[in-house]
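ugh ok fine here u go
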Amino acid sequence: MVTPLRLLLATALSSTTILTMAQAGTLDPNFGTDGYVTFTLNDWNVHGADALVLPNGQIMAVAGVYDPTEDIALARYNADGTLDATFGDAGVLTIDVNDGSVDWPTDAFLQADGRIVIVGRIDGAMLVLRLLEDGSLDASFNGDGWATYDVIPGELDHVGNCAVRPTGEVVVICSNENESGNGYGSVVQFTPAGALDPAFGTDGVLIVDNGSGSTTEWLHDLELSNSGSIHVLGTASIDLNSTDDTFVYRITPTGTLDMDFDEDGYRSVPIGTDQEILGALAVTADGEILVAGSTNMDGLDHPFVARLNVDGTFDAAFGDAGVHIMTDITGQSVNDLLVHASGQVVFSGEAFNGSGTAMLIARLNADGSFDPTFGNGGTTLTQIGSSFGFESGFTLALAPDGDYIMTGTTGTAPAGNLTQVILKYKSGNTSSLAEGDAASWRFHPNPTSGELWISAPEERRSSRVRIADAQGRTVGFVAMDANGVVQLPDALDAGTYYISVVGKGSAPRALTLVR
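structure:
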């Protein structure tokens, strides 16, 4: 039985702050029960991998289920948090990829055409699935709807996140340990047809190596930039017992380290004096890089967000010389980042509540300071189960109304008694768009078949327009002419997108593209 939800105040924030349901950072009472839904399957533990916001506003939750063989579960929710009874078995579909195989999802990606890519492990090797909108396997992907690759035969592949290029190639990161205890990271690219891409790296694979045979690289997150380059967040340790160092790698579209990035293709990012635990990376429309995780100070872990310039140096205009270490919050995990066109940064994770951990969502201004209009001085802690339990916020996505969808986990320990949670938080961006600029920004027609007219002040004409997919990830830029007309790229498939004008403080607008 789930106990009533309680919102906890971060210890450094004023306990006298009164939250209203309309305030940014509060749960949406019109979603599920008090703003959240839980997903359980029989008596098995469920660990969420991702939640994808579909073009019609529905949410597809992707999770791993600790059933007898470990399988992948999909749950499709309506926009109000109720299960969609037309999907699978009363809203839930399980996938056993190879009849008894051990399958475990780690990330998912919604393509603009509605197909879903899921990556993870199958019996220790890398797994890539592509599904149709109804959850069935897409037979046009490698003949069966799934493909595998064993990075180090006989060793466990620690598969991480993925991204899908607008042209359909699937990029996946992976970390491995070899028999000597050392290891390395790999970036693997599959063609749209599901084969290893011979045009990328060496037969589809790039080994990430900092130049020493004793180096152990571990990859945590990746994001595609507008140029097609891949930014990867990782750690590397030269000696097995030394403190890991934080690195950002930039990889060319053809799968080589980009030597124009700090001359080696990677840059060390020193955050603190002790070890960092990394979680998420994001790249802005202007090419700036955001890195998030936790750093240990005086025996305690604290979340941090850092912003780097295009060349990987710290952006002095953000936080304290490029880094905001949140010493008032104790928590080991920062798991995802979401960056608005306005420069706002939203992140998810967990925070110590005095006896256990709670789910954390927080929002920073463009300069790295906490946004005082969000939650309690910039943060919201959400506790669903016992305060002595283990709860953590994971992935973030934008709902069509501009609010935030966050996946999370509630349970008694990281390795057991886990339940997936999907929460919806008010962003405040619907009623207060672009710093009070809502009246001056309009666009039509919506839906559109490709041509869009944007009503904006004259000084905002002849600008670049950013196009993001349903998860808020940049898929391209187009020019707005002097008359405010935008022609969307022919390569974009039908679906929901978010548009915003670069550098002009415009909030993303939801747009339906029909073909």
